[in-house]
Design goal:
The complex is a heterodimer.
Chain A (H helix, E strand, L loop, with lengths): L1 H36 L6 H21 L2 H4 L2 H28 L7 H27 L4 E2 L7 E4 L11 E4 H23 L1 H11 L1 H6 L4 H27 L1 E2 L3 H16 L4 H25 L9 H15 L14
Antiparallel strand pairs in A: 1-4, 2-3
Chain B lengths: L1 E12 L2 E12 L3 E5 L6 H9 L6 E6 L2 E2 L5 H7 L1 E3 L12 H8 L8 H6 L2 H21 L14 H14 L4 E5 L7 H18 L2 E5 L3 H7 L2 E6 L2 E6 L1 H5 L2 H8 L8
Parallel strand pairs in B: 3-8, 3-9, 6-7, 7-8
Antiparallel strand pairs in B: 1-2, 1-4, 4-5, 9-10
Helix pairs in contact in B: 3-5, 3-6, 5-6
The chains are: A mainly alpha, B alpha/beta.
């Protein structure tokens, strides 16, 4: 049994990192907003989904006009990524402005309900527009970056088999790494990043240090949503077909990843996302084997979430979170 | 010349009048103390000046501009900085970064410039670091620059709060119980430090304090609040002998011999 698990390990890792990278970037959006407002922004998964739809719509449009064939595919993708992230970024800012800011001083639960409302609204809005334009709310983008590669793990040791991946997987991983490094630099080294951390720790004191708190909160939503939207595009390119409901379960898992890493902690969200992705893929590949055929691959979520529960029982603040100690 | 003019300032919380038509004029370059028993409305008074609360009535004027209706970050830009009765540092970031937050307003970098990391932005961030370091030297915390603020000793945290406030280049510095929890030696050092700040930095200082020795020694003008009302104002010697003040602190029996 161990030999078989080992055989499939390289492929599990490649697929797990790709999926985990997506969880990680979405988890960043949850964790940033939570850090600054203590709000679980349940609409964030839907921003990811909307990003995927905007991206695919643009790609389809560009194909129709013959642009996609005329320019290098990677250039087209970068263009789509930039435009989508700007659009979803502003969408995030608008959502905060209209649905959360008026409720800033009401109990946290009220804002949470508002977030769930926004989430349904976006799902149905995207579904309506897509169905209206295309007659079907399930959308398949133009096929891009489908070349297969393999890494010859078998040449390292015969107990591994080769791992296969598509060009899009590589692009996905590279793009995510760039986004993460960029964000980490922004938050830790720049004036606005510092303002963000100050507001997250103590909003009132930050404002007394001449930081415009509302501007910083808008900025946080912009960045989180821009990253989420861009990830949506990458997701659509990687997995091909999208529907308006992909944001729900993916958002839930990304939220889980954020909690796993310690919510409010940016590096924690990155690590949590990758871990969850790899665990899930591992479960998908090996669950049948491990349980002697009782559970199939479709139970992978149970496996991943069971591990989450175990982690939280022993380390409730998450893997990278700091335990909050009461001052005495 | 007066720098801060407060007139008829009133704040109510439900039925409680926390600050009741208080008038106050603070001279530029002076050291002024606001004293009063617990619950007299001193901190509320500070919160009204810094925009944390909006007054129900009255006016607060810094120099020639009114501050009423402005948000705290706008008031801070006008040149008022403060420290807190209960230390409120950004405890999970470093000592240096705490001071750099105070420099926020003078950094011109917009969000776009920050995203593209233009040369100008990078130079500016470097200068900010140096300036923050300068403030740490000024309050004597330079060797702790990379520690998390929460790991500093209590007295050091108080000084860091002052450094952070000074970084905003205030015209008016409000200190809320700066000597709370300090031993006599630390209090003496603080007294010297407050004098030094005024000489070096051309800043007007208003402080809330319970340590009467400090208050009497340091202040040129004292305002006394009790139950939200101003009951006395004057020089330390006048306040010391003011019947109403003694009554407020010690009760009526202290003034009327039994």
């Amino acid at each position: 049994m161990l030999a078989e698990i080992l055989q499939s390990l390289p492929q599990v890792l490649v697929d797990g990192i790709a999926l985990g990278a997506i969880y990680a970037v979405i988890a960043l959006g949850y964790t940033m907003v939570y850090g600054i407002l203590e709000l679980i922004n349940f609409a964030h998964g839907e921003i990811f989904m909307t990003g995927a739809f905007i991206g695919v719509a643009m790609l389809i449009l560009m194909t129709g006009m013959g642009w996609l064939a005329a320019m290098p595919a990677i250039l087209a993708l970068i263009l789509v990524l930039v435009v989508t992230s700007i659009l979803t970024g502003f969408m995030g800012v608008g959502i905060e402005r209209m649905a959360y800011r008026p409720l800033r001083n009401s109990p946290k639960l009220i804002t949470l309900i508002s977030a769930i409302g926004v989430s349904f609204l976006l799902q149905d809005l995207v579904r309506f527009i897509t169905e209206y334009k295309r007659g079907n709310y399930i959308l398949t983008g133009p096929s891009m970056f489908n070349e297969q590669f393999s890494i010859k793990f078998s040449s390292i040791s015969s107990s591994f088999s080769d791992a296969f991946f598509k060009t899009s997987t590589m692009i996905l991983i590279i793009a995510v790494v760039i986004m993460m490094i960029g964000l980490d630099f922004f938050v830790n080294k720049t004036k606005w990043g510092m303002a963000m951390r100050a507001v997250a720790q103590d909003r009132e004191t930050a404002s007394l240090m001449s930081i415009n708190v509302n501007k910083v909160i808008s900025l946080t939503f912009f960045i989180g949503s821009a990253l989420g939207g861009a990830t949506g595009v990458l997701f659509a390119v990687q997995y091909g077909t999208i529907d308006p409901y992909i944001g729900f379960i993916l958002g839930l898992k990304a939220f889980t990843a954020a909690v796993l890493g310690g919510i409010g902690n940016i590096r924690g969200a990155m690590a949590g996302g990758l871990m969850l992705g790899i665990l899930e893929m591992f479960a998908a590949a090996n669950l049948q084997l491990l349980t002697g055929g009782i559970f199939g691959a479709e139970y992978k979520d149970v496996f991943a979430f069971a591990i989450l529960i175990v982690v939280l029982i022993f380390k409730p603040e998450g893997l990278f979170g700091k335990a909050v100690t009461e001052k005495v | 010349m007066s720098i801060l003019t407060v007139s008829n300032l009133t704040k109510q919380f439900g039925g409680l009048v926390a600050v009741n038509s208080v008038d106050m004029t603070v001279e530029k370059g002076s050291i002024t103390a606001v004293i009063g028993p617990n619950g007299a409305g001193k901190t509320t008074f500070f919160n009204l000046i810094t925009g944390v609360y909006q007054p129900d009535n009255g006016n607060v004027q810094l120099g020639s501009s009114s501050l009423v209706g402005l948000k705290p970050h706008e008031i801070s830009r006008h040149g008022i900085a403060r420290t807190f009765q209960n230390i409120r540092l950004f405890s999970n970031i470093t000592v240096l970064e705490n001071v750099m937050v105070g420099l926020h307003k003078q950094l011109k970098a917009g969000i776009v410039g920050t995203l593209f990391q233009t040369k100008k932005v990078r130079e500016e961030e470097q200068l900010a670091k140096e300036e923050a370091y300068h403030w740490l030297e000024y309050v004597g915390l330079a060797k702790h620059l990379n520690e998390d603020a929460q790991n500093l000793s209590y007295g050091a945290q108080r000084r860091l709060e002052i450094a952070r406030a000074l970084a905003t280049k205030p015209k008016l510095l409000l200190l809320d119980e700066p000597a709370a929890g300090m031993n006599p030696r630390e209090t003496r050092e603080l007294t010297e430090f407050i004098h030094r700040m005024r000489e070096d930095l051309d800043v007007t200082i208003v402080l809330i304090e319970h340590d009467m020795k400090l208050v009497m020694e340091i202040s040129e003008q004292i305002f006394v609040l009790d139950h939200g009302e101003k009951i006395a104002e004057g020089k330390p010697a006048e306040i010391r002998n003011n019947v109403k003040v003694i009554e407020a602190y010690l009760g009526k029996s202290a003034v009327t011999p039994a």
